[in-house]
């Protein structure tokens, strides 16, 4: 079974950048698609980016489109979320998740393997 571990979170100033990484073990990169989600205190989990294992297609939520970039390294079995132009509304716990191959969705219910989450904070 696939296991996921996020890294790269932390504190950054508004307008700054962070790069989150999701390392997968126990499966082949081609066997699952990846989604990134975030959850702020008192709010529902929000899907923000996803990438299909089929053709590498990506899709982003309007809240992050143009600022965040999701990519995968299939040889290293990792997925990276480059976050630029971080704003005051971006702080949350960020999760990566694995779903069926060919999936391209921001709906958390479609994903069945989740990492433990990592904190991203934005403050001056």
Oligomer: single chain
Compute the number of helices: 0
3D shape? globular
Q: List the uncertain runs.
A: none
Overall mean pLDDT score?
95
Instruction: Give the N-to-C terminal Cα separation.
Output: 40 Å
Please give the radius of gyration in angstroms.
13 Å
Q: Helix/strand-derived class?
A: mainly beta
Strand content: over 45%
- Element-level helix/strand string: EEEEEEEEEEE
Q: Helix share of residues?
A: under 10%
Work out the number of β strands.
11
Largest beta-sheet characterization: 7 strands, mixed
Explain what the structure shows.
The protein has no helices and eleven strands. With 124 residues, it is an all-beta fold. The strands form two sheets. Strands 2, 4, 5, 6, 9, 10 and 11 form a seven-stranded mixed sheet that branches. The model has no long low-confidence stretch (mean pLDDT 95). The chain starts with a strand and ends with a strand.
């Amino acid at each position: 079974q696939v296991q996921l571990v996020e890294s790269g979170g932390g504190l950054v100033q508004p307008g700054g950048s962070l790069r989150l990484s999701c390392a997968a073990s126990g499966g082949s990169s081609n066997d699952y698609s990846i989604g990134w989600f975030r959850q702020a205190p008192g709010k529902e989990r929000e899907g923000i980016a996803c990438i299909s294992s089929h053709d590498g297609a990506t899709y982003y939520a309007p809240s992050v489109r143009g600022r965040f970039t999701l990519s995968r390294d299939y040889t290293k079995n990792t997925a990276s979320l480059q976050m630029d132009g971080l704003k005051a509304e971006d702080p949350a716990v960020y999760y990566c998740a694995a779903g069926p191959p060919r999936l391209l969705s921001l709906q958390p219910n479609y994903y069945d393997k989740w990492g433990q989450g990592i904190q991203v904070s934005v403050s001056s």
